[in-house]
């Protein structure tokens, strides 16, 4: 994926997009001139920048026709904790009891807090794989929610937009680490990510279609990640009348042997991206045993059923680390995974 990103960036040049790349702790003296300030989006500086961040800015510039500034502050493979304004403290039970604000994370201290004088429109967040390997669920939601609120507080802007990337399909269950991961570890973690959408002025993009190899943890098509993030900003921050997200569960209605699923963000309609029957739907009865389900589109609904489950009670969609479902809206945005049960 890195090679493809490099090829995509090599031909790019836009002096109306200005970039600032945070390369090291901004609280320390930068005698080597590593942090070289603002630079035009071209050449070696652009190739060292976040590909997703640049293509986000490119889409904004194409649609708005105004100069765009982007700051990239990131450390590859990092967990969420170093980016937090405090250290999560676990209680006597397994979950997080509080956040100790006297112990800020090292990346927050050196790579986020010093940026606070800059006036920002919002934030893009693309992280999660490291915490998914820890099989985190509700603890991640607590950390992520705290991070969003604390960054907004730092910039004294409770309404600052915060858009993030739901992590892509990957073979987490192949991990040989001490923590045993299953095919459901990833969808449970994604559920924890999506819980942050309850906060105002947030948005999330789906990347289930942007992986060619499940053993490659990094989505290949960073330009599309940037474009999808930009759709959220264009719709929510710049007033563009566009469909900015893929279909999301709105309601699931049980009708005898079938479940009728209603979606929001259907755009101009639902469709199968490969013209084949819909994939990655499953249903279960009272026993909680999920089986693959037949799913068909009817207007803006999906009707699911399974011959082995005569009285379905629950439905799941995309509930597997390998899931790359073909349910999209006609604007080309993939549907978000969901489940209507709450079983562990």
Describe the fold and architecture.
There is one protein chain. The chain is α+β, with helices and mostly antiparallel strands and 344 residues long. It has two domains: 2-236, SGNH hydrolase (Rossmann fold), CATH 3.40.50.1110; 248-339, no CATH class. Helix content is 24%, strand content 24%. It has eight helices and 18 strands. The chain has helices spanning 2-10, 43-48, 51-64, 106-112, 129-132, 138-154, 185-194, 222-236, and strands at 14-22, 39-41, 68-73, 87-90, 96-100, 122-125, 161-165, 202-205, 248-255, 258-264, 270-272, 281-284, 291-292, 294-298, 301-305, 314-317, 327-329, 338-339. It has a four-stranded antiparallel sheet with strand order 9-10-15-14, with no helix packed on it. It has a four-stranded antiparallel sheet with strand order 13-12-16-18, with no helix packed on it. Helix 6 (138-154) runs parallel beside helix 7 (185-194). The relative contact order is 0.12. The mean pLDDT is 94.
Give start-end ranges of low-pLDDT stretches.
Answer: none
CATH topology value of the largest domain: Rossmann fold
CATH class of the largest domain: Alpha Beta
Largest sheet, in brief, is: 4 strands, antiparallel
At the fourth level of CATH, the homologous superfamily of the largest domain is SGNH hydrolase
């Amino acid at each position: 994926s890195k090679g493809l990103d490099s090829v995509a960036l090599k031909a790019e040049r836009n002096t109306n997009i200005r970039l600032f790349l945070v390369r090291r702790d901004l609280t320390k003296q930068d005698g080597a001139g590593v942090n070289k300030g603002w630079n035009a989006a071209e050449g070696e500086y652009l190739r060292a920048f976040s590909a997703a961040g640049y293509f986000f800015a490119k889409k904004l510039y194409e649609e708005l026709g105004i100069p765009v500034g982007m700051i990239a502050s990131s450390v590859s493979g990092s967990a969420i904790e170093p980016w937090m304004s405090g250290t999560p403290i676990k209680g006597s039970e397994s979950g997080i009891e509080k956040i100790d604000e006297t112990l800020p994370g090292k990346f927050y201290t050196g790579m986020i807090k010093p940026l606070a004088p800059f006036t920002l429109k919002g934030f893009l967040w693309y992280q999660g794989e490291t915490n998914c390997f820890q099989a985190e669920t509700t603890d991640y939601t607590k950390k992520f929610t705290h991070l969003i609120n604390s960054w907004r507080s730092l910039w004294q802007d409770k309404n600052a937009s915060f858009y993030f990337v739901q992590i892509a399909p990957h073979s987490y269950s192949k991990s040989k680490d001490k923590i045993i991961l299953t095919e459901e570890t990833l969808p449970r973690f994604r559920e924890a990510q999506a819980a942050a959408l309850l906060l105002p002025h947030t948005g999330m993009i789906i990347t289930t279609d942007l992986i060619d190899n499940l053993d490659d943890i990094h989505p290949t098509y960073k330009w599309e990640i940037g474009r999808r993030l930009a759709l959220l900003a264009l719709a929510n921050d710049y007033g563009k009348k566009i469909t900015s997200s893929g279909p999301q569960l709105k309601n699931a209605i049980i009708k005898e042997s079938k479940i009728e699923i209603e979606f929001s963000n259907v755009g101009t309609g639902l469709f199968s991206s490969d013209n084949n029957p819909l994939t990655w739907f499953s249903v279960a009865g009272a026993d909680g045993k999920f089986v693959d389900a037949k799913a068909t589109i009817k207007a803006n609904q999906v009707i699911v059923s399974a011959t082995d489950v005569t009285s379905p009670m629950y439905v799941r969609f995309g509930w597997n680390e390998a899931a790359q479902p073909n349910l999209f809206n006609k604007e080309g945005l993939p549907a978000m995974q969901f489940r209507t049960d709450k079983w562990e």
